[in-house]
Amino acid sequence: MTPTAQRLMSLVPGLHLPLPEHLDSEAPRPLRHRKGPGPCEHLRQVAAIEHEGTATGVAVTDRFVAAGENAQAPTVTWSCAEGEQWLLRGSGIEVFRDGTKSLELTWQSTAPLSVTWHDPVGPPPGGLPNPAFAHGCVEITVLDSAATAESANPAETTDTADSAAVTEDGAPDVYEIRTEIRSREFLYQDWGLTPEATGWRRFLGEVPVNYYVDPVPGAEHAVVVFSALGPKGSFTYNYKRSLDALPAHKIYVLDDFGDQGAYFHSHHRHLGIHRSVLAALQAALLDLGTQPDHTHTVGSSKGGTAALMFAAELGAATVIAGAPQIKIGSFLSSPHPNILKFMTGGTSQEDIAWADDILRPYIARLGDSTQVTVVIGDKDHHFRDHLPVLQDMVHGTGAPAPRVVTLPGIDHAGIGTPFRQLMPQLLRNAIGVSDVSTYELEGWQFITSVTGGQVELQMVSPANPRTPAAVYLVQDGNAAHKVPYSPDSRTLTFALAAGRQSRFRFFVKEGDSRQTLSTPPLTGAP
């Protein structure tokens, strides 16, 4: 083995790469030439990855040249070593040994991919025994981008029966898979997801899907929570603490595709991600015994978009979306072109238009039994640029018009806190365990949620100006509880006395003036 190969091998302890003796990291050389009908030439180049001048891993670039029609599908296989535990991600692998993360593989490509895990006891790739695959392996296969590109409308997908391995000008198709293998400076942030973490499940569809299930014994309803957009490499669930007390099963789905997510939808316009997520959720709901009319989808921002997208296919009764993106391409084009490119294959105006139309076919299939609620701030550009598009899409579908909860003074960056406060109450109302009412006074929103002998009050302040508000809980005409003036949002819980008429009285100060509002008697009170 050459010194170059030895140096690259030493960068990542335990790395098993089929490096040829003549390896030259500066120029690609043939690794093997695939045989069979329509051969596919395969070349591999290996180079160091450096971070701030320090070597942190290796980058392996596999280049495939399809030399004729019916070319063999370009494939890269990574084998698991003895003693390793692998955690499959949508676009990578985390490798653990003795409970500690030791390696990380992430890949990107010039065409859509399928990802297949082969168990040690299952047939290896090609059906031939191979000691390298004795502990399991992952097979990454290129799907011809021209043959698999699909309309944003899944009902209008391109015919994929004939895979063209030669372009129209007669030149062979060229595909690349770049796999980065790191021993430090990992992309995936540690959010507690490991091969042995309890509650986590993995669905092996066209691509792997990771999700967390929080079952509640005896529950009839289930809530599917889609994760919002996070920093690169940060894939975790949202709103779990807010929903822990909800008497319903919870399913938290990760969007760990690419380096920052794919709206649970597509890779180079191929909808394998969407189909895999849908199949995973259908299997999880079946396992929980939840019927479609007892299924509810929720999420904010990107998660709200996904909640809308999957509602019709799951037959969900309720969608609660916080400031969702409707024109996905337009939203991604400037701040997140990496996500747009992963989803569509590019960042052109045509790619933007394709992504802008993603939601339309899913919204068109909403039924008259699905109630959509959008929680959104009136200072959020989504209020102006996205909400009217959603309302237009829903109009004429037979579904009820979206209910809009408007948050005065809230922009997109501020949606998290009020959505976290409002969503549990809206869900309690949807599953029939409470009665929710919303009142507005001088920019403040007061949301009451009655469950049994208790009432929970959400006081949501306007962001600007921050006028103070106070509240009385009045029982039989007397103030049983007084909450002093404050400009801050608050969550309060009160006990309701049986046999006494209860209502709230809200007060808002604005300068020297004071505005008041009294609620009707609290519905559902004992």
TrEMBL record:
Superkingdom field: Bacteria
Record protein name field: Uncharacterized protein
SUPFAM superfamilies per UniProt: alpha/beta-Hydrolases
InterPro entries associated with the record: AB_hydrolase_fold (IPR029058)
Source organism: Kocuria subflava
